[in-house]
Amino acid sequence: IEPAIEPKSVSSASTLGQIRVTTDLCDKSPAAMLSAGARTDWGFFVSRFEKIVYSHMDGVAMSTDLEDLRGVFSSTEFERFRKLHTRSLNQQLRDLFGMLCCAGSIEAASLFMTAGGLKVTDTSTCLNNGSDDDEGISLGAPCAAQPLYHAAMGGSPEAINWLLELGADPAVPASDGTTPFYIACERGHTTVVHLLYNLGVDMTASDQDGTSPALIAAANGHTDVIKFLHKVAVDLRAPGHIYLDEQFALLRRNVTPLSVARELGQDEVAEYLETALGSNAEKRVRSDDPMLDRARKAGVADRLKPIPDTLLTATRPGSGAQEQIQ
């Protein structure tokens, strides 16, 4: 939201304050505008902060951006506004701080952290709604996550190491159950996967739907990640559950990384798994029918009645879609 230009004789009040930006100030930097006595509203700070953050995420940031940012944060107008709207402003700073960690912009992130009094344990909104190349499967809805999760999603080992020095915990999951290691596998950030492995994180922790890091890496065709997981002895035959679409309508239950790779046409991953795992590539570590196994052990298997195929469906709450159990 860009602040409107108003004649000197006209002023308009808003619920968050007043803005009086004259024509001769509009070509100045945000810091210069504030030092010249410009009054601001919410839109002024949001637009300036977002402009700087997005320039860092797009890789087109300039050194002057940081100088302007320091000027804004040190201005009396910023302090005035912060006192009036501490909660709203700090939430905005937390969200933008997470985005800067995702972009690996440590210096800018440090400025936001100091200005907002932020901590590495603060959570912010994470829009995990697409892979880095906008292809493949990324099933995360907006969730709350700590800064290190954002850094792992962006594939920035430098930001991760910086946050670790500040006391961040690499094992803390986001609100949807996905861990930094999971999101790094999903995005194919092999360097970050290596780093988190060396920190001793759980490499098999699944999300809330039962999708493991190996399954999501195979689904997205990240062969290098799959090769690394195999090298460090992660069981790539272990089954799990995965949705194959972002509408949560196509569910696969108790499937292996190989079967998922085959179904989604990830030929390179499928070929590697077939070669690496040999004839037992599809071996599952748990029974497809545990109830039948228990009945056999109890000697009552003959009493079980077969379930009609028409009943072998499952519906995700709220989706309104039926899914054939595989």
Notes on the protein architecture:
The protein is mainly α and 326 residues long. The chain has 2 domains: 1-118, no CATH class; 121-286, Serine Threonine Protein Phosphatase 5, Tetratricopeptide repeat. The protein has helices at 30-35, 42-57, 63-73, 76-84, 86-103, 106-116, 147-154, 157-165, 180-187, 190-198, 213-219, 223-231, 257-263, 267-277, 290-298; strands at 12-14, 17-19, 124-126, 143-145, 240-243, 251-255, 313-315, 322-324. The strands form 4 sheets. It has a two-stranded antiparallel ribbon. Strands 3-4 form a two-stranded antiparallel ribbon. Helix 3 runs parallel beside helix 6, helix 4 crosses helix 5 and helix 5 (86-103) runs antiparallel to helix 6 (106-116). Mean pLDDT is 75; it is low at 1-28, 30-39, 129-134, 283-288 and 312-326.
Short description:
By secondary structure, the chain is mainly α.
